[in-house]
Design a protein that fits this description.
This protein has one domain (about 10-165). Strand 2 (about 70) and strand 3 form a beta hairpin. The protein is mainly α. The chain has helices at about 10-30, 40-50, 85-105, 115-125, 130-150, 155-165, and strands spanning about 55-60, 70, 75-80. The structure holds zinc ion. The site of zinc ion has 5 residues, from helix 3 and helix 5.
Length: about 170
């Protein structure tokens, strides 16, 4: 048996998370100073100004999609979160999508006929599926930004999953 076989799945995953955190730290340097008091809308406004590109937040009932989505329509960035999510959970979703935006995980504008946002959103999701590494980076980014903003998960199911992954590190 070679040495490599003794590397467990958990160890590989831990290394991946470490790399995700390192990349997320680099991406966080592209953010404006975090607003105090914390408001995700204020961060988005400052980020849009810094990038010189409008950034619009939307809520949409996304039965077909997991939590959120980012797309660029050629002029403006759109971040969509699932309608009904609030507080830490919504902030986490928005930051996750902002990470995809800053990292350029989607290329090219979403194309769909007409101005129907739901159609554009679905077209964008289908056109640019993310890799596991990209998802891990986005999760790390969102968790780290909220930690820096001193926002704590309220202890719901989603937040417990995130904190279980990142532990106290
Ligand atoms: Zn994602």
């Amino acid at each position: 048996m070679s040495r490599r076989c003794s590397v467990t799945h958990e160890m590989v995953q831990a290394m991946t998370w470490k790399q995700a955190r390192t990349e997320a730290t680099t991406l966080m340097t592209g953010l404006p100073p975090l607003p105090r008091p914390w408001r995700i809308e204020d961060l988005c406004a400052a980020l849009a100004e810094r990038r010189g590109r409008p950034l619009l937040l939307h809520e949409l009932d996304l039965a077909a999609l997991p939590f959120g989505l980012w797309y660029f329509d050629g002029e403006r960035d759109h971040v969509i979160s699932r309608a009904g999510t609030t507080g830490y959970h919504r902030d986490h979703i928005v930051l996750h999508e902002i990470c995809h935006m800053l990292a350029g995980h989607n290329t090219g504008p979403a194309t769909a006929d007409g101005d129907d946002m739901a159609a554009r959103v679905i077209a964008a999701a289908v056109a640019s599926p993310h890799t596991n590494a990209q998802e891990e980076l986005a999760e790390a980014f969102a968790t780290m930004v909220l930690k820096q903003a001193r926002k704590r998960p309220p202890g719901g199911e989603f937040e417990q999953r995130a904190s279980a992954v990142f532990g106290a590190a």
